[in-house]
Structure formats: structure tokens, C-alpha cells
Write a structure and sequence with these properties.
Elements (H helix, E strand, L loop, with lengths): L5 H8 L11 E4 L8 H12 L2 E4 L7 H5 L10 H8 L15 E3 L12 H14 L4 E4 L6 H9 L2 E6 L3 H13 L5 E5 L8 H11 L4 E2 L7 H4 L15 H21 L6
Parallel strand pairs: 1-4, 1-5, 2-3, 2-4, 5-6, 6-7
Helix pairs in contact: 2-10, 5-6, 7-8
Length: about 260
């Protein structure tokens, strides 16, 4: 993953990031898979009233979670929109109880669209789509993820409290030092090891904000097609607890970007 170029930052924000942003691009990214990235992106988009742009072409991503089989579509509308450029945004899918979605497709994995054009498209689409964008990315370095990072006003980095996960986070913080970053501890057990909590605090001190933790809600992983927990009416105890945690993260991101949580 690459840091956002100074030229892109200067062109969009007058040389420095503003304390509050209008319709920001919020990119959710991680060097490592299996860290809760897609679930976090899904719930943040719902909580912020944002459009979720799914750039993760894996079959088990946000698109399938939303209820769309990416393999059932012969051609990717998102890929078509990227090829058309920043002035012709894709039309998001909308459904009550779920975030607005620009779905992914396996063809994105073979896309040869350059990261600069991807960044231009996301920047160009954010106003036309009527609000902030939350972009879910494929783990690691690739043109789609790099373009989403280049476009980002804020990078959200989900990180479980594990030795390998924290090592990946440290590398990510070094590579993305030019960005505004919020780290979100994810899949946190009831009694996390103190040593790892201290490692996270040391690693992030003076470098980025750290959001409230999201607990290890194993039942979330078993739900293939679902509404966002933050949008569920009359939630049960465990859904309410999870929703409160995601809303707390959304509030921190709202403070950084100037967006008010919708849920």
C-alpha cells in the first residue's frame, strides 16, 4: 500500500487536511486479511449514511453480505463506471436496513485500471453520490486499494490485538504516515492481554487516533445475508451491544471528518 501523494492532498484540501470535511472518502484498509475489515466497513457505511463502495473482489465480501451474488453478473457495473471515469458514477443499490452499496465483482481482480484513475473516480463520485463514501478494499497492495488510499480523506485500519496483526499495523502506519488514520481494535476478547494493549498504545501514540474497540462477536461471522446491526429495529441484547460499539466507532470517525452519524 502506498502513501497518498502530496500533490493529490494539496489539490483537494488546499495544502493541509481541514479539521472537518464535506462528503469525505473513508477508506477501510488492512495489510492482513481476517481482521474484521469488511464487517467494519459495512457497519460504518450504515451508521454514517454513506455509500459503501466494495473494491474487495473476494466472494465472501460486502457484496455477498448485502445479498448480491457477484458471480451471477456477467459484467461488473463498478468496472464499467471506473472505465467511464470520474464524471459518470455508478448507481448504488439501496435496500431498507442495509447501507447503500456499489457492488464488487470478481473481474476487478484482473482490472488493469491505474490507481490514479481509481482515485480520480472516487473523488469525482463522492459529491455526485450525495454523501460520504466508505470504501472497502482488498487486503494488501494492488491498484484498486492503492487508488482508494490515494483518494482517502481518512484511512480506517481495523486491527485485532495479536502479535502478527500488530506487526502488520506498524508496517501500515509507516507506509501511510502521510494520511489521517483512525485505528479500530477489532475482535477484542473480554480480557485482552495487557501486553498487547500496551503495544497498541505505544505504536499509535502521536501518530493516529484510536477508536473504541469492537468486541469479538462470533455470531456476526455466521450471518451471510444480513441487515446492518446499527439499523436493526427492536434489536436483541447482543445485537444492541454490537450496534453500540459500531456507533461509537462511527462517532469518532464523524468527529475526525465532520460527518454526523445517521444511525
Amino acid at each position: 500500500m502506498h502513501a497518498r501523494p502530496e500533490a493529490c492532498r494539496d489539490a483537494r484540501r488546499g495544502g493541509e487536511y481541514a479539521p472537518a470535511m464535506t462528503s469525505p472518502v473513508i477508506t477501510v484498509a488492512a495489510h492482513k486479511g481476517g481482521v474484521g475489515k469488511t464487517t467494519l466497513a459495512y457497519e460504518l457505511a450504515a451508521a454514517l449514511g454513506a455509500v459503501l463502495v466494495d473494491l474487495d473482489w473476494d466472494a465472501g465480501g460486502a457484496t455477498r453480505m448485502w445479498g448480491i451474488d457477484p458471480l451471477a453478473t456477467r459484467r461488473a457495473p463498478l468496472l464499467d463506471a471506473l472505465e467511464r471515469g470520474p464524471t459518470a458514477p455508478p448507481r448504488p443499490r439501496r435496500r431498507v436496513g442495509q447501507p447503500a452499496l456499489v457492488p464488487s465483482h470478481p473481474d476487478l481482480s484482473a482490472s488493469r485500471i491505474e490507481q490514479g484513475l481509481i482515485a480520480e473516480c472516487l473523488v469525482g463520485w463522492q459529491g455526485a453520490l450525495g454523501g460520504p463514501l466508505v470504501v472497502d478494499t482488498h487486503p494488501g497492495a494492488n491498484p484498486l486499494t492503492d487508488g482508494a488510499l490515494e483518494a482517502a480523506d481518512l484511512v480506517v485500519m481495523p486491527t485485532p490485538l495479536g502479535v502478527r496483526e500488530l506487526a502488520a499495523l506498524e508496517r501500515g502506519l509507516e507506509e501511510l504516515a502521510a494520511h489521517r488514520i483512525v485505528v479500530v481494535p477489532t475482535m477484542v476478547p473480554p480480557n485482552p492481554p495487557r501486553r498487547l494493549v500496551e503495544m497498541l498504545a505505544e505504536m499509535t501514540a502521536g501518530r493516529c487516533a484510536v477508536a473504541p474497540p469492537v468486541s469479538e462477536h462470533r455470531w456476526l461471522r455466521r450471518r451471510l445475508r444480513r441487515s446492518a446491526v446499527v439499523l436493526q429495529a427492536n434489536p436483541g441484547v447482543r445485537v444492541r451491544a454490537a450496534a453500540d460499539e459500531f456507533r461509537a466507532v462511527a462517532r469518532v470517525i464523524g468527529e475526525v471528518t465532520g460527518e454526523r452519524a445517521a444511525a
